[in-house]
Amino acid sequence: MAFKLNRDNVCARKAWSSHVLLDNVSKSFDKVRAVSGLTLVVEKGEFFSLLGPSGCGKTTTLRLIGGLDRPDEGAITIGNEVVVGEGVWVPPEKRGVGIVFQDYALFPHLTVFKNIAFGLKGCSPKELKQKVMELLEMVGLPHMAHKYPHELSGGERQRITLARSLAPSPKVMLLDEPF
């Protein structure tokens, strides 16, 4: 059975033009409610920020959108596809979502070049090199391609993580405390 948005819901009326939609999403960890009945709409091309004190559910919300956690209730739509809903679960790798976490999450055993190239599939070696170098230029670090994460400053690691997340051209980018 396909999930149907409740058309009486104010959020649902905007859903058909939105890019990311959370409809009454909740998530608890043990007895702690991290996200409670969250409904929000993010339009395509919109820059949207979640602000709040530590522990209020910002990272959990990003993890729910990215598919790293499952909500207890509610639905999530990305583009025109319901990725979480009644009887629906689209895994993270099929959502077209790039994520940059607070800890950067680079692979320590891979060079900067290979970290960025990791998510690129189906490219010829020439296309892969061109795409990685374009991304390194974009973040101002083309000279760092052969370095390893432990050889970079915190700011450089952050920019490499951003480049790696942008490499597969995601539909949505999630940044968890990026600055």
TrEMBL record:
Annotated membrane-spanning segments are none
Keyword set includes Iron? yes
The source's superkingdom equals: Bacteria
Q: Name one GO molecular function term.
A: ATP binding
Q: Which InterPro entries match?
A: ABC_SmlMolc_Importer, ABC_transporter-like_ATP-bd, ABC_transporter-like_CS, ABC_transpr_FbpC, P-loop_NTPase
Q: Which GO terms describe its cellular component?
A: membrane
Entry keyword set? ATP-binding, Cell membrane, Ion transport, Iron, Iron transport, Membrane, Nucleotide-binding, Transport
Query: Which stretches make up the ABC transporter domain?
Result: 20-179
Enumerate the SUPFAM superfamilies for this protein: P-loop containing nucleoside triphosphate hydrolases
Q: What is this protein called?
A: Iron(III) transport system ATP-binding protein
Please name the taxonomic classification of the source: Bacteria, Bacillati, Actinomycetota, Actinomycetota incertae sedis, Candidatus Hakubellales
